Amino acid sequence: MFRKVLIANRGEIALRILRACRELGIASVAVHSTADATAMHVRLADESVCIGPPPASESYLNPLAILAAAEITGADAIHPGYGFLSENADFAQMVIEHGFTFIGPSPEHLRLMGDKILAKKTAAELGLPVVPGTEEAIASEAEALAAAERIGFPLLIKAAAGGGGRGMTVVQNRSQLEEALRLARREAKLGFGDDRVYLERYLDRPRHIEVQVLGDQHGNLVHLGERDCTLQRRHQKVVEEAPSPVLGGRERAEIGERVARALQRLGYANAGTVEFLWQDGRFYFIEMNTRLQVEHPVTELVTGVDIVREQIRIAAGERLGLRQEQIRIQGHAIEVRVTAEDPKTLVPAPGRVRAYHPPGGPGVRVDSALYAGYTVPPHYDSLIAKLIVHDVDRPTAIRRLERALAEYVIDGMATNLPLLRALFATDEVREGRYDTRWLGQFLQGWRG
Fold it and tell me: How many CB atoms lie within 10 A of CB 64?
């Protein structure tokens, strides 16, 4: 097992990893920008190193600064969390070449699944169902038009290097295609440094369902069931739950087994999530996230598996201490993302936390690095907390979530708590009757 782990992240996920390290008897190193000098993960870590000024490009996205911090502190391994450099194959390779262990999948698998065209092709070869579309990047407008006629409208233009809901453009008809293609290429180049795009059929009312896996370096791999992440705004998840309210036991077992078989064939090791769109009873692979997910707590609560602890153990070369037949889905869990945003416009609204009172009680978990007196910096993602509840079934879990949301106090800054309370007051959410576009439509009429 490792002696010391450097956590190459910030906020709630850095704190989550720090806690897992402490429970495993591993010393922790926090890295931080100057804007995060008073952050909770910095205060609680065994050691901390400032790696640069507030812009992420000069701190949390600076591989050399992170590697220098690992060298200085004598860390054995680096955990990237999610976001930032977590799916950067070049960074993972640098970590390994400098003598540290990367707590995540291999650079080869990061590279494979980071290219969305190659990932889709690989998924099909491994027997996973994929969305109809082009198998290669679009080389010309003529090729795009020919492919569009074959796929049909509406369709999606997707960035080959995109992910996490970014780099997607919906095209409703032929007349929009040429201009949309030009803009999509430009945005892909600016956002990902890669202007390759491809086309996919646009599913008009899907749900977003993903399967969590854990694999070790000895060929053992299990799935931990699915999560439903359908409530989204602009392809960004707002609410996640496990299990999905629309799947039956047979569908759940079948898609989980197909994913596990596919990734075992691939030789995948560490945590990963295979994401699907689900419509009319059919699954369509869209991408694989080769990292820890923001929404991992709902899976932890329904399975009893500590995913972060398993990540660390797997990276240290230990065997997975789980067999598929041992994994049981117990009850229902729901996570809501609490953000520092105006609840009406959802524009980021960072500020100083004057008072902070997280909810508690049975079946309530809050993953957050907030505290009274802390100033949320404006330089990073607006996620400030995750509220997760667990109970015997979905209706009971919703009632527990409503109680917890009513208790939650974050004073001094705007948050999306009013929106989250409003969502669970709707019949559609309470009854699970929505698709990935429902939240956007709800927001158009909601005034807070």
Answer: 9
